[in-house]
Specification:
Layout lengths: L17 H35 L3 H17 L2 H9 L8 H34 L1 H4 L5 H18 L20 H35 L5 H38 L5 H19 L1 H11 L2 H22 L4 H24 L8 H13 L1
Helix pairs in contact: 1-2, 1-3, 1-9, 1-10, 2-4, 2-6, 2-10, 4-6, 4-7, 4-8, 7-8, 8-9, 8-10, 11-12
Length: 361
């Protein structure tokens, strides 16, 4: 029997399969929180070191980590909500705040992924033209603008009516259906087009380059593939389901509940994929990077040396290590800066030097 709504009542769809997805949602939220929190904390610390070394891309990765940390801080609230049978028992202000952070996180993350791709696009495809123009100040201004823009767009969340299911509206209303269509076009389709365009050209430029070693070419390709995979796995399914639900509601406003019941479990799985973005960002963009691995090793080594100095008596050798360690770190950072791939035509000398060293060893 189909459950159709009466237009005169502001009711929700009955018999939604909330219990079927409860264990999955709680498990995913808990795992993402447990893994994402330390991973993003480590990422933010390491990228902060990169920022101090005047690396432009570190601004975007650092902002991405902060954005993920904000979202991860709301997961305990969603776990309580799901455990209570999708019944919001906290204050309306809390609901609006965590909902605001959820929406902002998705689209700030998407736009920051675009920023990373565009920055790499100009650094590789237009290396000579962009030299001197890719500055940290410009990156900071762009990030602040994106945060302010996304926050401003979602400010109406604080003026919406809060139901017992918070912002989990089943079925959709005209307002939410219209918002979902706008979110799909502006927050997904257009950024996805930018990602495809920039990373395709990065692939082509890397393929034609004669100044990059095979290892360097592979590294550029892996980062580009990682960006596209994160976008397709974490954000594409969620937004495809948003547009399907919105369009179906527009044409079946009298009886949307049977369809909502059928697709709810699928929508829950796609929502879990979107939540996994909080773990995927630091793992793929920072921890997989060779330079970040070296920086992590140096940071741990400095911490270990500092700990040993505190636990042992002070002598001349310890003082010598204390003086040499920062110098080694700076020299290592300089070597790392020289290894970084920022422009393809301009790194001929660095690549040639690297090949000579390899042949000499």
């Amino acid at each position: 029997m189909e459950h159709c709504l009466n237009k005169s009542t502001n009711s929700t769809c009955p018999e939604m399969p909330y219990e079927e997805s409860r264990i999955l949602l709680v498990a995913v939220y808990s795992i993402v929180f447990a893994l994402g929190l330390p991973a993003n904390c480590l990422t933010s610390l390491l990228t902060f070191v990169q920022i101090r070394r005047n690396k432009v891309h570190a601004i975007y990765i650092f902002s991405l980590s902060l954005c993920d940390l904000m979202y991860l801080s709301t997961l305990p609230f969603w776990i309580i909500y799901v455990q209570n049978g999708h019944n919001w028992t906290m204050s309306d202000t809390t609901c609006k705040t965590v909902g605001f952070i959820f929406f902002c996180n998705i689209y700030i993350s998407i736009l920051l992924l675009c920023c990373i791709s565009v920055d790499r696009y100009f650094g590789l495809v237009y290396s000579l033209e962009s030299k001197g123009r890719r500055e940290q100040k410009k990156a900071i201004i762009i990030v602040c603008f994106l945060f302010a823009l996304v926050a401003l767009i979602h400010i109406p969340v604080f003026f919406m009516e809060v139901k017992k299911t918070c912002f989990e509206t089943v079925p959709l209303s005209i307002v939410f259906a219209s918002m979902n269509i706008a979110r799909f076009i502006l927050g997904f389709a257009i950024p996805f087009t930018i990602l495809i365009f920039t990373n395709y050209n990065i692939f082509q430029t890397t393929k034609r380059s004669s100044s990059l070693t095979c290892r360097q070419k592979a590294k550029v390709k892996y980062v580009a593939i990682a960006i596209i995979l994160i976008f397709l796995i974490c954000f594409a399914p969620y937004h495809v389901m948003l547009i399907i639900r919105a369009l179906y509601f527009m044409f079946h406003q009298d009886c949307p509940c049977p369809f909502e019941n059928k697709v709810y479990s699928v929508f829950t799985v796609f929502l879990c994929l979107g939540t996994a973005n909080g773990v995927a960002d630091p793992i793929i963009y920072v921890l997989v990077s060779e330079n970040i691995r070296e920086e992590t090793y140096r940071s741990l080594r400095r911490w270990r040396w500092n700990s040993s100095k505190l636990n042992s008596s002070t002598d001349h050798n310890t003082d010598t290590l204390r003086l040499e360690t920062p110098k080694e770190s700076e020299e290592g950072g300089q070597r790392e800066e020289n290894k970084e791939i920022t422009d393809s035509p301009g790194i001929q000398k660095a690549c040639t030097s690297g090949i000579d060293q390899e042949s000499g060893s």
